[in-house]
Design goal:
Layout (H helix, E strand, L loop, with lengths): L1 E3 L12 E3 L3 E4 L6 E4 L2 H8 L4 H11 L3 E4 L4 E5 L4 H15 L10 E6 L4 E6 L5 E3 L5 H8 L7 E2 L5 E2 L39 H4 L11 H18 L5 H10 L6 H9 L4 H7 L1 H8 L3 H17 L1 H4 L3 H10 L5 H9 L8 H10 L1 H20 L17 E3 L7 E3 L4 H11 L8
Helix pairs in contact: 2-3, 2-4, 6-8, 8-11
Amino acid sequence: MAINVNRNVIDPFYRYKMPRLQAKVEGKGNGIKTVIANMVEIAKALDRPPTYPTKYFGCELGAQTNFDTKNDRYIVNGEHDANKLQDLLDGFIKKFVLCPACDNPETSLSVKRNNQSIQGKCKACGHAFVIDSKHKLSTFILKNPPNPPATENGNGEKKDPNSPVNEPANGFDYKENVSNGDESDGEWGEPTENEKLTANIGKLVIDKDLDKSVEERLDMLHQFFIAAKKDGAIKDTVKMLNEAERLELKTKAPILLADVLFDVDVRNQLKTYRDLIYLFVKDDAKAQRHFLGGIEQLIQNHKKELLPKAVFIVKDLYDMNLVEEDTILAWAAKPSNKYVKKDFSKEIIAKCEKFLTWLEEAEEEDSSEEEDDDDGLEVTFDERGKVGEVTVEPKTNGTAKLADKPRQEAVKANDSDGEINIDDI
């Protein structure tokens, strides 16, 4: 059934139509996803690449998206209703399709590399406009500009100037420039299955995947983790880490691991995959924050089962050294809407209040002990609670001892020389 592109127009004879969005939910548990069955047809009606509205859904829903252009499959992770996605599509159309002057959807987009802006032009009224650069989708469009109209080559054939055959990554296609005769140059070619490069030589091979946007590389790594779990290779920690580092996503990878590895049985799964996760988050506060964001999304996806257990889950992260104390306290002090809605983040934090209070009090006690520690000297007291003058014996054991004197004399001495205040003790 066709509907108006601009659904604010109720004219049944409106010339700009598009098919109603069709969504199909696949999978279950942690692997549930929503496939936009007719995204190609919708995108064609809007004259936009199908990746744009799909990525827009991901930005608005805070969900990962996947594109399988060969099979025309455009996927948003999680379970999403078709009507909700249709409403979100209206937002995409308003921001990235309709002309702001005449509300006509017959517009085109182009990317200006010199000032990193997205320009729009209305074919109906001629109005030129600039797309809001603050929206997350704008970053994706800048890195993945719409293809310009195909031009004819000298033979009268159509060719796409954006084709990877005509424009190889970084201006050099190493597949086509491998020497056929000189063995010394062969190591620069793409390695075959039987050819293993050393670690240092491997770094010299041009990796076209690094030319892709962060979002595309995240999708690639997400699919890699899913396939590894399915094949039973997810516990190959070195392989998982190497792939994340190859795509330069080691810091962001923990949020993907949380999505792939965990479901309602997260507490037991944390024990199973603790060593793998630790490799990614060790001594990296940003990676730990991304991992906490993945846990927030997990709790949101299984709210009924996991929200009451939030305090135990966060404590498990602390006990297993997966998230450090400072990172947890910073997360609790400043709820964010980066991973889930801020209100839900606050709800999770509220569930963890007792544990957070315990952490804060433990931190205060540690700080107090550090202030009382005087250059590593140990102060000892006798069993009767008497306080004496502090004396340090000459480097025998490095321990300061208190000479036995009456409490009254000690107080008097301390008041006079200011070394120890009895009230502080």
